[in-house]
Amino acid sequence: MHSINVTPSLLLSTRSRRRRRLTAALGRALLFGVTAVSAGAVILIIGFIVRDAAPFVRLCGVREFFCSTQWYPAGTPAAFGALAIFYGTALVTVSAALIAVPVGIAAAVCLSEMLPFGARQAVKPVVEILAAIPSVVYGFFALVVVAPLLQTHGKYLLAGLVVIVGIPLGGGVVLLTGTLLGRGAARRRGAPTWLLGGMAAVVAALLLAAIWQCLQVQVDSGTNALNVAMILAIMALPTIVSVAEDALQAVGRDLREGSYALGASRAQTTLHVVLPAAASGLIAAIILGVMRAVGETMVVWMASGNAAQIPAPWFNLMAPVRTLTATIAGDMGEADQVTGSARYHVLFFMALCLLLIALICNIVSELVIWRKHKALG
Amino acid sequence: MHTRTITATLTALALSAVMATHAGEEIVVDGSTTVGPIAKAFAEYLMSQHPSLRISVSESGSGNGAKSLINGACQVATMSRPMKPQETLAAQVKGINPVAHIIAMDGLPIIVHPSNPLKGLTIEQARDIYFGRINNWQFLGGPNARIVRISRDTNSGTYECFMEMVMNKTRLANNVEYVGSNGAVRQRVMNTPAAIGYAGLGFVDATVKAVPVNGVMPTAATVLDNSYPLSRPLFMYTNGEPATGTFLHAFLTLCQTPKGKELIQAVGFVPLVEGGQQ
Amino acid sequence: MTPGTRFIERLFTAACYGALAVMVAALLLLLVPIFVKGMGALVFHGTVEYRRMRHELFDRGDGAQLAREQAQMQRAAQPMYAMLAEFEAALPTNPPAVRATQAAALRDLQQRLRVLLGPLPGEPQPALPRSQYGQTRWDRAQVKLHEVLYAEVWDYSNPDTMGQKMEVPRQEQFAGTALAPLFPFLQQHTRAILQPRLTCYWRFFTDASRDAHFFGGIKPELVGTLYLTLGAVLLAVPFGVLSAIYLVEFARDGLLVRVLRMCMNTLAGVPSIVFGLFGLACFINTMHVSPSKSVLAGSLTLALLILPTIIRAAEEALRAVPMTYREAAISLGATPWYAVISTVVPAALPGILTGVVISMGRAAGETAPIIFTAAVSVGQTLRIWDVLTQPTPVLSWNIYNVATEHEAVDEIRHVQFGMVLALVALVLLLNGAAIILRARMARALKG
Asked: What is the pLDDT of residues A96-111, one digit of tens each?
């Protein structure tokens, strides 16, 4: 990249020149070796996980693993149906993303577009500290502080959450549909205040209905999908905010200035110019945030309740669920590998699935960014 | 260059010498979270008696204890269930001869929240609850509340004992919540009015309510005379019989001394009576 | 601006500021309880029982002063013990039916008093330290005092709901007996008996725990965390920095480098529990670097985990060094190698250091990778030559352990919060150091 080619000095003798070239080549080879080892580590990891996951496919096949919800690794006969565990992983991840994405992107917009430089510098450490706090601390907080709270005041907490998520989400919906519909109206002159007001009223009514629904919820136990989703959302926030903010910052000034010059307001500029321009970065931010939530172990192990079930109804966040990571952490102790049982290998198969999810996320985010680069030329 | 090699070798030698001299005074204990409190209390007591002795205790589940013993990674495996045939087999393949020492008895109290009016359960009712046939306290004479079932994680000896003694090896319902340790079972039950759980006798205190099973309350006396239906021995496994006079021997025989019995009682388990060993 | 757009504008601004406020509030909600309650492990009102424990278990404090305080405790509690003795003496004179219930009530009361004040006079020394002492902390003592004064009774009379908790003054159980005055007496004199005094226990960080974290501090955990972190950094830094130097200074853009980069990005995305499984399968079960869990195996696993962070930070730092540095060095006759070693790396050093410090924070806080490779729940402080073969207690794992697996989770909340505070403080200190380093660097590059 930054290497510079220089013509070797003519003053050196042929021998010393040759020696020098040799050492340089050797050194370069050495450095390349070290780099290859560092990069090869991931191959090693995949290799070992595949090696120990393969016997499971041989012993039990994958049909039951992906299609059954019966998870009884210690039973006789044992059952290794991980469908419910996959569902649990998906449920907590998606709900964490539902909380973290609107809040995270709105916060990134605030950081990047609204706050003055000084204030931004003051808020940045908040993001860094949130990212730095170890996951076991989040888990401890979920178990010791949030779980009892959920149990006693669960419905109010849920209602509060609906407000926190609903306002940016609802606001976004009002703005987008309002301006979309408004475009037609604008051609016939005049901004559709009544339309926006109507939309806002509908969204507010929906929000109120949701809050009312939340207040009817019966909370059986404080360690459940909602608890984990909230904590995972907080953990994914810093990733989303910092990556999204970088993406917004990367949008050129000229675009913004052009939009303002055409008389657009800040909201219009952000929504119609900056956010679409930064879309690939935002998608990458969301993927990275989701990856953090999928791979998290301690929080889900401590606070998800670890019940291998598909909640009824399917969106019931107040039910305990089990995730891939927590199953690996919780079951490894007894999965005696001395006998090479399916019980040991199934955990590696789960790890392999996690790895694949991470790989796919990585590739997708890289593709998104790459396509963007290509589009920009 | 030479001097450096020599120094390195010397340091390595010195280190290994130091390690060798300390090897005899180091006991590594690994295994069950149920037996954990006993092992920790024994370790604390012996270390306060012999300051040069170092004991580390891991609570990673009975199966992990067996594994560590088989791999030669610990001297004592604490287990809340007997070793399985395949574990014994694996040990023999590796040249390890696991010897069981029963150190105490434990009951498996079924616990509910103290606000639960439940007066008692039969084994069949407990099985029906965990199997998913009984889903509401209403059916057991209680108020209308969904039962929250708490179980130890599948990697524990306590779970396997429960499966064997209560469930007859039938499966638990899908929505049973699993937690990683006895302490966590108690915590969950203590914080959840509609919960039911099971844990080692040493973990049950006034914050939860142990219910009579088949009409018998779990106490030290009922566990010892086997009238409480859910009782079990707790084990420590070693590789061969420990030689008399070693710290390891002292650690394993502590449960037969009055001090050891007092310790076992203090952490909530039931010490063996003289000649009561099977 | 039409009212419609103004409305949009306001809504938009409010939503964005609101989101930021939610994030800040989440951080505060998390950190404030941890700091407040965590400080409770260090600064609290210690009772005379605390001072006795400190003297007997840790050989600290003024013995003569302690003797005086204990004498005062004895004096203050004497009337209470007299009442107990009187009641016990009168017990056999009661009719048998009353006698049984009273004896049971007495046993219960005595047990509660033992928990509050330590073994009653004339009783033998219990075996476990936790029952050798009464409450060592005034806040816990007040909880226990409440349990002495009030018996918890559950009212199951309403069949439609779960039972209701009722607190019955124990005084009622003993009405008309010699013990009736004990309760008001105890309530009035607890302070005189236990003599709480503001205590700073800074040695929390340097004491080993006694009796499974009932007393003492967290030194073994702290030392274990330090070993693991330093080990991971020592193993990862050479690889990370050399790889970054290769990628920035020597590699030519091509398929090979693109593959290398993709591998590293993938490594950064591997979930931490997978690292743990890999460490178990590779270092312990296949390579046998140690017979079982050990600090070495844990450090190796953590090293892999932080490798991408270090590479990325080092790359950025190297890239930030202006091209003119290299050109200047080479124009003075340096070979490209010499230019890198003599000018580029030193200039990038603060940036590289920042990355290393941040990755130390990451390594110190990780739990999942060390569950199967390094962590045990109870153990001695590791000596340096043990790191190759022995597992160690670690802060992160022991937070999990004492918060869930411990047999008396509620009795040692302060220790749990203390541990959490120690871990958070360690990680934040490392990150703070990184932020300061970065600021310095920025200033140096500017100036």
From this structure: 999 999 899 999 999 9
A203-237 per-position pLDDT tens digit: 889 889 988 888 887 777 788 899 999 999 999 99
* In a shared domain, residues C164 and C264: no
Average pLDDT of chain C is 90
Residue C366's Cβ-side half-sphere holds a number of Cα atoms within 13 Å equal to: 31
Find the range with the poorest average confidence among A55-69, B263-277, C140-154.
Answer: B263-277
Q: Give the structural domain span for A345.
A: 40-65+72-81+332-377
Which of A11, A128, A140, A232 is best to mutate for the C interface (most C CBs within 10 A)?
A: A140
Domain co-membership, C118 together with C241: no
- A256 and A322: one domain? yes
Predicted pLDDT of residue A305: 87
Instruction: Please indicate whether residue B217 or residue B72 has the higher confidence score (pLDDT).
Output: B217
Q: How many domains does chain A have?
A: 2
Q: Which of the four pLDDT bands, split at 50, 70 and 90, describes residue A11?
A: low
For chain C, what is the domain count?
A: 2
The pLDDT of residue B21: 42
Please indicate, yes or no, whether residues C129 and C235 belong to a single structural domain of this protein: no
User: Between the CA of residue C205 and those of A332, C136, C218, C424, what are the distances in Å?
Assistant: 32, 18, 5, 14
For residue C95, what are the domain limits? 66-198
Q: B37 in contact with C at a CB cutoff of 8 Å?
A: yes
Closest CA to C83 of C114, C106, C100: C106
CB contact under 8 A, B87 and A322: no
A31 inside domain:
no
DSSP assignment of C350-393 equals HHHHHHHHHHHHHHHH--HHHHTTTB-SB-PPPPGGGTTT--B-
* C240 shares its domain with C193: no
Q: Among A250-259, B48-57, C2-11, C16-25, which is the least confidently predicted range?
A: C2-11
* C 331-390: CB under 8 A from B: 376-380, 385-386, 389-390
Least trusted range by pLDDT, from A72-81, A367-376, B31-40: A367-376
ipTM over 0.90: yes
Residue C70 belongs to a domain: yes
Out of 3.30.2350.10, 3.40.50.1980, 3.40.50.720, 3.40.190.10, the CATH code matching B2-104+233-266 is 3.40.190.10
The one-letter amino acid code at A203 reads V
A335: confidence class by pLDDT, cuts 50, 70, 90: low
**In contact, A28 and C247? CB cutoff 8 Å:** no
Q: How far is C91 from chain A (nearest CA, A)?
A: 44
Chains that touch A (3 or more CB pairs under 8 A): B, C
CATH code at A167? 1.10.3720.10
* Rounded alpha-carbon distances, angstroms, from residue C196 to C45, C69, C139, C189: 5, 11, 10, 12
Chain A environment of B89 (Cβ under 8 Å)? 339
Which residues are paired to A110 by β-bridges?
none
Instruction: Find the CB nearest B143 among C126, C159, C165.
Output: C159
Q: Note whether B167 contacts A: Cβ–Cβ < 8 A.
A: no
A79 Cβ neighbours under 8 A, 6+ residues apart:
A64, A68, A70, A71, A72, A73, B171
Distance between A75 CA and the closest CA of chain C, angstroms: 23
Chain position carrying tokens 């009796």: C211
Is residue A17, in this structure, part of any structural domain at all?
no
What is the fold, at CATH topology level, of the domain defined by B109-217? D-Maltodextrin-Binding Protein; domain 2 (3.40.190)
Delimiting residues of CATH 3.40.190.10 domain(s) in chain B: 2-104+233-266, 109-217
**What's the gap in Å between the CA of B186 and the closest CA on chain A?**
14
Would A13 be classed as within a structural domain? no
Please state whether B153 falls in left (phi above 0), alpha (psi between -120 and 50) or beta: beta
